[in-house]
Amino acid sequence: MDIVVETDRLGKRYGRTWALQECSLHLPAGRVAALVGPNGAGKSTLLHLAVGLLRPDAGTVRVFDSAPYDNTTVLAEIGFVAQDTPLYRDFTAAELITMGAKLNRRWDAALARRRLAQLGIPPDRAVGTLSGGQRAQVALALALAKRPRLLLLDEPVARLDPLARREFLQSLMGSVAESGTTVLLSSHLLADLERVCDYLIVLHASRVQLAGGVDELVAEHKQLVGPRHGNDPVAGVAAVLRASHTDRQSTLLVRTNANIDDPRWTVHEVTLEDLILAYLAEGETQSSHEAWGVPA
Amino acid sequence: MIWMTWRQHRKQALFTVIGLTVLAALMVPTGLAMRNTMASTGLDECVRLALDSEKCNTASRQFSNEYSSLAFVGILFVILPLLIGLFWGAPLVAREVEHGTHRLVWTQGVSRRQWALVKVGFVGGATVAAAVVYGLGLSWWMTPLSHAGLSSRFSVLLFDMQGLVPVGYTFFAVALGIFAGAIWPKVLPAMAFTLVGFVGIRVALTVLARPNYLPASTRTYPVFGLASAPERDKYDWILAVGVRNPDGTLVVPNGTVECNQVVEGPGAPCGSEFGIEAGAYNWQLYQPAGRFWLFQGIETGIFVALAAVLLVLAVRAIRRIA
Amino acid sequence: MIEFVLDGRSKVNTYMQLVQQVKQALRVGLLEPGDQLPKVRDVALALAINPNTVLKAYRELEIEGLAEGRPGVGTFVKRSLAGASLPNQAKLREDLVVWLHQAQAAGLTPEDITALMETTMRATLAENAVSGRPP
User: Smallest Cβ distance to C41: which of A30, A177, A197?
Assistant: First the structure.
């Protein structure tokens, strides 16, 4: 399988604070990947490193097998929509398309025009006067007009109302179906992700907590309900992510490495959302313990 | 990229052109009026032939009555480079970053270095062109005023308004603005930094450095005797004057004493109240008027060099912004 | 051509929901062999879902022999699930109505009926699966 984005012990520091550290992951081609984490987890930093806006302070990042920092060859293959979908507000949508044509070697202006026409976005009004949803669509159209092999989206729907969010994801998925572009989109909103993404990267407190295909991840995680459980290992359980106990009963969220055959445990499937929340909560306790200097 | 730069800055360029046009509309008629007055009163004749007649003095007085206040209009031009630095230089990078659009434009197919070079080239070129226009224009406008002997064009504000230096100042102000915006990418702080930095460096150079670009000349003439001040160019830039005793001690700072009597004789000797001894002499430290263009060149060179350093630093800083 | 809908609150996987909807349409005769299934792009666009999910659902249908992909054209229905059962449905429905009236007469509430149906169905169909009889 082709790897589009690959990082190895990647780190980025602002002053003395690490925004991202020890980040090793790979994103296979053709996936729609979600980069999930709370605000400040390092999502934007990772995306900026991947699009070459930032230079790593540690480790490496490779996109299409090249270092992306200040590399216009790689940049030509990447469509990027930054957070809050920044656009020159006094430009019209048509002028922004012209701008793209002037700044890129490969540019499909017809594609961008067609998309915006379909969405009913006026070509001759300053984009600053458009709605947030329309601006996001213009930004997406500009990113797609590069005919990129990798699309990076930083919180594309965070500021949109539900209808605009839906419309944005519709256009995104429609164009992914047409072009087969690999997508990496960051979000701290978990709804919609299950439908849209088939690959998941969970970041928390500047570290990667979890990365992998959604189906595989959901399949290997289970919720177990059974008798009050001490610390003795359960056959088939690789790690316990979360445990809650009553005096008689224990509920465990676990990562499995084999079938759970123990008849004392009832096995429940987990949803993607459960899974993400469990890993975020784990990261939370970890970093909190680190901050207080006590063992977790 | 050029299309892009033009599209982004065309409104700004339009405002600048309008501003300069308004200034020209103000300056051209007054400049012509001054020349007319000079011609009609015969003052230009006096200046050319260096005449010193009653008629010439009257004409000169009449001219200065009429126009001396106009010299203050020129002060406007001292702050013009600063305005250009504030409104062209500071927002160039800072506004992009403040609006987040740097992430749009730097992730297209153009490298940041190329972006920076075109932007700086375009804005720098446009501002330098504007500065050349108003620098030369103002030199033309000021000529009658300095010819009429109202002041030396070496004097602090007049030197700063005309000739080459406005080009240097403007280029420097723009570079300082770009640099400030690149290391502190917010429009208002960048403007504040530009304002403080520009005024600070300008004042420091004017006060401390300019009098010493070249070693100043010294002129001495005796206090006593009928031989008074030697012939001098009235456009010389006098840095300091005083009266020194024969041993060199300064007895009268900032003053000139001329006595046509000798120390002996009845009554208090001339200048004895200042402690002037026999053989004392008047002393002047000055930059000769002929060095005007040399000094213009030196000062412009300093500011252009500073601007170049700032631009190099700015382009480096731009590569670290994300 | 059919149109897919998604039940956001369902615990069933998105791709499974698509498979089930195609099967349902095949069962009730909405889709017949030779019909084209909606294009992947159109489904992805309409439902705002990952096109890979749609592809996965179609692949599942192909594996089950219900559909076939024609490169460059689309995915088409190959086999129907309506089969012989469709004409029989009217008769079966009549029987069910009679039985429901009996159940009501016996004092069962609608909830009781649903529970009885579900447990019986699960037990019976599970038996069939074990003994290898077609469902």
Answer: A177
Q: How far is CA B135 from CA A15, B24, B120, B140, B306, in A?
A: 44, 12, 21, 9, 19
Written as six digits, the tokens of B25 are 């509309």
CA distance A103 to chain B (A): 6
Give the nearest chain C residue to A164 (CA atoms): C48
Q: What is the pLDDT of residues B117-146, one digit of tens each?
A: 999 899 888 888 888 888 888 888 888 777
Q: Classify residue A212: in a domain, yes or no.
A: no
Interface of C with A in 75-104 (CB under 8 A): none
In a domain, A211, yes or no: no
Q: What's the rounded mean pLDDT across residues A284-295?
A: 73
Same domain, A240 and A274: yes
Residue A23's DSSP bridge partners are: A10
- Judged by a CB distance cut-off of 8 A, whether residue A35 touches chain B is no
CA distance B180 to chain A (A): 20
> Do A193 and A232 belong to one domain?
no
pLDDT over 60 at C86, yes or no:
yes
Q: Verify whether the Cβ–Cβ distance C53 to A194 is below 8 Å.
A: no
Contact status of C47 with chain A (Cβ, < 8 Å): yes
Q: Are residues A123 and A11 in the same domain?
A: yes
Lowest model confidence (mean pLDDT) among A71-80, B25-34, B127-136, B156-165: B156-165
Domain ranges of chain C: 14-77, 85-131
Chains that touch C (3 or more CB pairs under 8 A): A
How many angstroms away from the CA of A173 is the closest CA of chain B?
Answer: 22
- State the complex-level ipTM: 0.88
Asked if residue A226 and residue A161 are part of one domain, the reply reads no
Of A44-58, A129-143, A282-296, C103-117, minimum mean pLDDT range: A282-296
- Domain for residue A209, yes or no? no
Give yes or no: residues A152 and A77 share one domain. Answer: yes
Cβ within 8 Å, pair A195-C47: yes
Is B104 within 8 Å of A142 when comparing Cβ atoms? yes
Burial class of residue B311 in the structure, from the number of CB atoms within 10 Å of its CB (0-12 exposed, 13-18 middle, 19+ buried):
buried
Record: contact B7-A95, CB cut-off 8 A = yes
Spatial neighbors of B180 by CB under 8 A, at least 6 apart, are B89, B90, B94, B189, B190, B191, B193, B194, B197
Gap between the Cα atoms of A114 and A197, Å rounded: 26
Class level of CATH domain C14-77: mainly alpha
Closest Cα in chain A, distance from residue C27 (Å): 26
A184-220 residue pLDDT tens:
999 887 877 888 999 999 998 888 889 999 989 988 9
Of the three residues A204, A239, A271, the one that is the final residue of a domain is: A204
Chains A and B touch (3+ CB pairs under 8 A): yes
Domain containing A124 equals: 3-204
pLDDT at res. B266: 55
Residues A182 and A273 in one domain: no
Average pLDDT, chain B: 84
- Chain A touching partners, 3 or more CB pairs below 8 A: B, C
Q: Total structural domains in chain A? A: 2
CB contact under 8 A, C49 and A171: no
Give the pLDDT band (50/70/90) at residue B115.
Answer: very high
Distance CA B271, CA B250 (A): 13
A84 touches chain B (CB under 8 A): yes
3-state secondary structure of A183: strand
Both tokens assigned to A71: 């590399």
Q: Which two tokens stand for residue B30?
A: 């007054």
B110 touches chain A (CB under 8 A): yes
Region A113-121 average pLDDT: 92
For residue A38 the two structure tokens come to: 């709370």
CA within 13 Å, CB half, C19: 18
Asked if A36 contacts A203 with a C-beta cutoff of 8 angstroms, the reply is yes
Same domain, A234 and A277: yes
Same domain, A164 and A232: no
Query: Do A51 and B113 lie within an 8 Å CB cutoff?
Result: no
